[in-house]
Amino acid sequence: MPTAGDAGAELYWKRSGRGEPLLLIQGMSGTHLAWGEPFLSRLEPDFDCVVFDNRGIGNSGEVSEPFTIAELAADALAVMDAAGLETAHVMGISMGGMVAQQVALLAPERLRTLTLGCTYPGGKGSSLIAPEDAGPLFEAFASGNLDRVIKAAYEVNLSPGFRADPANYGDFAAMASALPARQQTVQLQVQAIGGHDTQARLAEITAPTLVIHGTEDRMIPVANGKLIASLIPGAELEIFDGVGHLFWWEQPDRSAELIRAHALGA
User: Fold this and answer.
1) Given this model, what pLDDT does residue 142 score?
2) Which CATH number is correct for 2-265, 3.20.20.70, 3.30.565.10, 3.10.20.320, 3.40.50.1820?
3) Which of 18, 20, 21, 16 is nearest to 35 (CA)?
4) Kind and range of the H or E element at 77?
5) Which of 17, 65, 101, 208 is most buried, with most CB under 10 Å away?
6) Contacts of 43 (CB under 8 A, 6+ apart)
7) pTM score
8) Integer CA distances (angstroms), 220 to 98, 161, 213, 214, 243, in order
9) What percent of the chain has a predicted confidence (pLDDT) above 70?
């Protein structure tokens, strides 16, 4: 179902499940498919799950002009409006976690709870992917070779323990190839991430907040999650030992149960 975003971007969204409203915001290059059936199926018995594709990604309309994380937050609120959600639990991961931070700051009255996964606050003491990991990943994106992109993304986003089972690659590759990210949009997302810095304002977040991060995260190191949790009043921090960037992909049961307990407990 398409809806107009803040800057006229056409955004694809869909819903599933029943119960408390839950808006899920994906990260850089991620589409609604990147949540994966194992994770979503564990949320659907308790939540009315609304997932969407960020502007320029997946089934959403193409974009060519730069945008900011705050504009992506306005898009997320537009999806809530289109879905008829006055308030919702909000979960954002990676770049989507940056968007969720902005949603919490722009419209605090619309959040029931906030979950921030494998994400980044910007500012002093924060850090993104190391150059030695970023080089191969962005070279793969620049090549335009989908198979190369998927292999590079799998390498940097999942932990060595998860990748040790060859069977896990098939599901990831199927998801990534079903709705490939547009190279131009990924470049615009990288620019938006570079301008993100909410660190000085995180203390203003009033929603009950859960922060989740894996220790083997190479995209956004675990120190970022610890920093965010220390800056948001009352935030809970869950560290997944030995888990990579896509923690909900590696541990769908544990991830869904944490969100369920956090949201319904609040």
Assistant:
1) 85
2) 3.40.50.1820
3) 16
4) helix 69-82
5) 101
6) 17, 22, 49, 256, 259, 260
7) 0.96
8) 12, 18, 9, 9, 12
9) 97
